[in-house]
Specification:
Layout (H helix, E strand, L loop, with lengths): L30 H11 L1 E6 L2 E6 L5 E5 L2 E5 L4 E4 L3 H7 L5 E5 L2 E4 L3 E6 L5 E5 L4 E4 L1 H12 L1
Antiparallel strand pairs: 1-2, 3-4, 3-7, 4-5, 6-7, 8-9, 9-10
Length: 148
């Protein structure tokens, strides 16, 4: 059995944060950790009231396309993106985001629970209390990714 240890070295000599993962292989225990770290280190720009803000991917709950405009949702704010949903999907492919409908990408890390619905869809409950629906077309990949 492999043991996972966490070691943090603090010193005024360091100017940057460096994360090194030493492992025999990047398996199912390591991959989610890498994805989570990537989300915390990368950002996207969102606009609100004509002001542009950097948003760390880990802040985002979901992204929704409405009438050719993509909105970025955090716990308590909504921002507008200059990018199309398919561009964001490509940018997020190695992170914990997943398309769950034609117009919707959700941050898998922000899902608290999942409920199967009678019509073959899923209802995902997010950390902020919102519920989102996983369309039937995306259920198979969602089930594999989220439920294992």
């Amino acid at each position: 059995m492999i043991t996972i240890r966490l070691k943090v070295n603090e010193s005024d000599d360091f100017t940057d944060i460096e994360i090194i993962i030493n492992c025999p292989e990047a398996d199912e225990r390591v991959s989610p950790l890498i994805q989570q770290l990537n989300q915390m280190m990368h950002s996207i720009h969102g606009k609100k009231n004509s002001v542009t803000y950097p948003l760390v991917f880990d802040q985002l709950l979901y992204m929704e396309s409405v009438n050719d405009t993509v909105f970025l949702y955090t716990d308590d704010e909504v921002f507008e993106s200059d990018k199309k949903l398919y561009e964001l999907e490509e940018q997020l492919k190695d992170m914990r985001f997943m398309r769950i409908s034609k117009n919707f990408i959700v941050n898998i890390a922000k899902i608290e629970s999942v409920k199967a619905l009678i019509n073959g869809r899923f209802e995902a409950h997010l950390t902020n209390g919102e519920k989102v629906i996983v369309n039937r077309h995306y259920v198979k990949s969602f089930r594999k990714y989220f439920l294992g």
